[in-house]
Each structure stands twice: as C-alpha cells, then as structure tokens.
Amino acid sequence: MDQEKNQDNNSRRKFLKLGLLAGAGTVATGALLAAGKSLKGESGEKIKVLTTSGEVMEVDKNYLSLAPVGRKESHEGIPGRKFVMVIDLAKCKNARKCVEACQKGHNLTKGEEFMKVYLLQDSEKSAPYWFPKPCYHCDNPQCVSVCPVGATFKRSDGIVLIDNERCIGCKFCMTGCPYSTRIFSWKHEDAYDSKQPYSPEKSVPGVEGTVSKCDFCPDLAREGKLPYCVSACPMGVIYYGDIDEDVVTNGVDTYKFSDLIRDRAGYQYLENLGTRPNVYYLPPVERQFPVERGYDGLDEDIKARYDNTPYVQKLKKKEKK
Amino acid sequence: MSDITSDNMLKEFAPQLERTSNLGKVWIGFLIFGVCMGLFALYTQVTKGHIVTGMRDNVVWGVYIVNFIFFMGISYAGALISGTLHLFHAEWRKPIIRMAEFITVISLLIGPLYIMLCVGRLDRLPNLVLFGRIQSPITWDVIAISSDIFGCFIFLYLALLRDLSKLRDFSELKVPAWQKKMYKILALGYTGTPEQQKRLKHATDIMAAMVIAIAIIVYSVLAWIFSVTLQPGWHSTIFGPYFVIAAVYSGTGVLILAMAVFRKVYHLEEHITLKHFVNVGVIMLVLAAFFGYFTFSEYLTKWYGSEKNDEMLIKILFKDYYLFFIFSNYVGVLLPLIVVGFKRFRSIRNITITAVVVIIALWMNRYLIVVPTLESPYLPIEDAREAWRHYSATWVEWTLTAGGVASFCLFFTIASKFIPIVQVSELKEEPIEPGDITL
Lengths: 321, 439
Fold this sequence. Notes:
The complex is a heterodimer. In chain A, 24% of the residues lie in helices and 16% in strands. Chain A has helices at 2-18, 29-38, 97-105, 142-146, 172-176, 218-222, 228-232, 257-263, 300-303, 310-320; strands at residues 46-50, 56-60, 83-88, 116-120, 129-133, 152-154, 160-162, 183-184, 211-212, 238-242, 247-249, 254-256, 279-282. In chain B, helix 9 crosses helix 10. Helix content of chain B is 72%, strand content 0%. The interface between A and B is large, with 51 and 46 residues.
C-alpha cells in the first residue's frame, strides 16, 4: 500500500515536471515558446511561473498571453511529447459531462460530438457498459494515409489534427476511419462566424463543408491544462498524459501509465485493425455504477439513440410484460 | 452484299446533320430542362450546404458516388469494346464503334462531376494539385481519370478524322457555313494519302491498346478507393477486377441501348442488325457470367466466414436491401444468360430490354456496395436521428442524378447532330449471320 502511494507521489512529481497540470502561475514550455514566437516586445511586468524542470522563474506578462498556435506550427507538434489517453470503463456512468464540456470548448452545436458515448455489449450474454470514444490518434492512422491534400496529419507528439482551411471535404478520411470518429460540417453554423483566429489545435472556428474531430486539446496542453473531457468528468474516468514519461492523470489521481495498463489489463479498441491507437481502455470490471445509472436520467432525445442496443431492447420487453 | 461508297453513306446520313425534326427539338428541349433542374439542385446544395442531401456522418457517400462509379463504368463501352474489337479487326464493329466511343467520352466527362458533388468545398479543388499527396488513392484517381479522358478523346478523334475529312469534302451537305468551317479545321488537312492512312492506322492501333490499359487502371484505382479502407464490405482483394468486369458489363448494356435507340430514331435498320445485337449480347453474356462469379465469391466468403461485421453487413443486405439484392445480383446476372443464351429468345427487343435491366441492376449493385457498408460500421451507429442511421437520397440528389442522365443524352444527341453516328468511311456491308462473332 505504502509502496503504491510512493509510486503515486513519484509519478505525480513526474507529471508536474511535464507541466501538464496547471495551477496558478504554472505555464508550459510549449506555451512559452509559442507565445514567444508570436509576440514581440515585453511589457516589463514580470510574473512568477513554474518551469517544466520544476524551478520558479520570472516571465514577462506578454509571453503569457496564449495566442493560438498558427497553422504552420500546429503541423509540427509539441516537442518531446507523446500524448496518450486512458479511459476507465469501470467508472463511467454516462454522465455526459465530457461530451458537453467538449462541445462547449470547441464551439460545437448539440448535434456535433467529438466525444461520443456508446452503450456497448460485446455479445448476447456479456454485460453492457458505457464506452466513451474520442479520436484514438492512431500511430498508423488510415485517415492520414488516404487524405489527398494533407489536410489531416500526424504530429511528432502523436496527435492527429485536421487543418480545416485546407480540407476539401471529400470525406475519404471518414470512410477510412474504422472508429466512426470524424464528423462533417453539413451546413453553416452561427458558431463558425466567430472572430477568433483559426487554429487547427483548437478546431475553432469550424468551417462548413470540412471534416472535424476530437483534437486531444493540444492548445490546452500548451497552457498546461488537461483536455475539456478530462477535467469535466465527475468520475475521473478519463486519464491523459505522456506515454514517454509514462504518466497519466485525470486531474485528481496520477498513475504510472505502464503500471495502470498492466494492473488493470488495459487494451486498445479493435487493435487488430493495425491502427495502433493511442487511447487505451481499462475493462469494465468491478464497476462503481450499474449500467442503468447512465440510462435512466437521460433526456428523451439522448435516450432514443440507444433504442437499438440489445440492453435497451431487453429493458423495453420487460416493461411491456 | 453490295459495297456502299462513303459518298452514298454520307448522303444517307446527311439529313441527320442537316435537320432536326420537331420531335427531336422537343427531346432536346426536354433534356435541357432536365439539365437546368440539375443545375438548380446544384445551386441549392452549394448555397444551403450538404445538409440538403441525404448524406450524414455515417453514410458520407451516397448516390453521387454510385453515379460516379456508374458513369465511369459505362465509359468502358468505348474503351474496352471498341478498343478490343479494333485490335482484333472485327469487321462487324464498324456501325457501332462510333456510338461506343461517344459513350466513353461523354460518360467520362460526366462521371467525375459526381465525385465533385460529394466534395464539401468545391472552392478548394485546386488543393488537389497544390497540396496533392501521391499516397492517397484519390490522387491516383485524379491522375488516372484525367489520363483516361485525354486518351479516350484522342482515340475518338483519330477515329473521327476520316469522317471529318469526308464531311469537309462533301459539297452537297446543307449545313451552315460555320459548321463546314469547323469540319475543315477539325479534319486537320487529312486527305487520305497512303502515307496519312498508314500513320493514322498506326496511331489508332497504339491508342486502342493504350485505351484498354488505361481503362483497366482507372477502374481498378476506383475500386481501390474502397478496398484500401478497413470497412468490412469494401476491404476486399477482388474489388479491382470485380469493378473492371462490372464496368465493361454495364458498358455493353448502355451500348446495346444506344444501338436500339439510334437504330429506331435515325433509321439505321440497314446497318445495325440483329447480328450486332446478338454479338454485343454475347459479349454481355460472357461478362454477366464473370460478374455473377465475382459477386458470388465476394459474398460467399463473407457469409461463410461470418466475421462479426461481415455478418452484420450480410444481414442488412438480406433484410433491408432484400429486393435490391435480388434484382441486382440475381436478375441482373441471370437474365442475360437466359435471353442471349437461348437462341429462341434472341430478338432485338428482348436483348434491348435485357440491356436496360442490366443497366439498372448494375446501378443498384454499386448502391449495395456503397450504402449498406457505410450503414454498418465497426462501432454500431447510436444516434437518435433517423437520417444518421439510414441513408435515403433527397430530391436534390435524385434531381442531380436525373440531370446527369439528361446531360449524357443531351451531349449524345448534340454529338450525333454534328458527326454521323455511324462511321461512314470504309463502311462496307458484309454477309451477316446472326450469332457469328469474328473477334
């Protein structure tokens, strides 16, 4: 037990090193570098921040203004990083907070979801479970292979992004992705009129007639923050971190990634397709909530999407009786 | 039996070029109306966005892609049929070869338009060249199709050259002066000297072979767009040859239909006879057998192995798309085998009806390849919105489909007003026996 705690603390320290956890006065090198490039002149006002190596240093205030990373820089990725996500299916109760926070953060409409929550059941006799599904940011991404114009690309930090200013909207990537991750902007939305400068790292503002998807929130990572879905989840289902540093956190608990995967039998979804996803799942064993907790309280229009699942059909049959 | 000189032939075909009957005008007007409706639908789609189509996040490609495959497929009529028949010196090909080449070039011009209708940002099409990635099958497609259009156009033009020079030299032709001038320019000073003839023959031989090769490449690349993905219904090794066979098959269907229509409208009964229908019909029969074989092995392996997702796809095909499946993959295969296979069924009417059935069946076959696969992804579709679960084409898509067919007919009609629909030069009548093919 003590050992475990020790490990916990260790990994937490490591994680702080990453600068992913942003408290007040913490800033990521990425943000510094990016901001440094895009801003000229110093204001003279210094602010104390924690660097990636754990030291306190003073930085000019102007460098802290976090302008979105430009299109060119966003093709390259954050140096020295390799992002990974772990989703603990044992804790998910379909609270949908991840979905909502993501939609808010990315200026999406109600119908557009970068994060989707499925109700899966592997076979007739096995138990149903909630299955949050972001983009897997595969290491062998089909979507990137098939894109005719390089509008979707794989970065050095493992993130697969879309450049909505280059995308021609052929949707080949959507048929290429075996995980139905990508969504298309079928019509103009008011949110697209936003005046803020476009950045592929933010996926905002959206562009009509192009494809978009979960971006792993590299803009937040540069600021030292966790993705919207991770910080919004009340159950701490989603962990985010760096696979090279071997650490993941959900904002409360921090784990050594390899230990977590080993101890909890983590797996990748449909890894047999050879896509090599960077999102791992922890199987839904010893669950904290029964599956109906995620279904009963839902709005009718959300409930309806699960109508064809064996679980709901069984439920409806019972009700009739 | 008697030799017909080119001039006599020209006299016979001159009225087609000189006058358009009232019915013909109505027909052209109707087609223009169809094209305009298509343009209106296109306007709606461009201004309101792709939301006006039935396509959604799961079924991201609908009838547009089906039409794209379909039109690219019938372009095979010219490429393979006229190319092959040319290389094998099949004499009987002469009255129908022009039609086949027209079908090729016209459908090649229309087909790619449909893939553009699938594209969300038409204004960014230049990106395909500016930022083109050779790793993407779409880039392969762009290169292959443009080469195909270029090659087929040259092939058609080479075949036209002699006729254009005949038209230029034919003084009795009563057409406007500009049209005569057009013939003169297009004939490129061809007068039929032995040297010119030799060169023309040489060039045509090369292009006939080239056109066959390019056509096979184009259609394989088209199939690979689907089969390189991991989708259960598409990720198949036989898709390349399967698509090639299906394409030639549909091409023969359209050729037979065109033969029947022009025979009636332009009174070509003397030139296009039962023999031609039976000969093309026999090619169609052979292709039907191949097509049936490919279809069978494609679905047999999926069904027998019954992997989870294959099983789901088969279930959808045999449940939701039952009638489609029966029509396209049973009727569409068996009908030509029966009608052309048994001598007593072989009449121009029967073969033409069969051809129409084949055309529709093959369109449906492509629909079955595209839509049900996209409706059965690895992760089940969990969406409350009906349009997201099941694809059904909207009026915009149907109108644009009709508009494409109308423009095909329109181009064909217009082309036949400027150039005789039957090759007039070197056309000799020969003793004919229904059913004998001199390949």
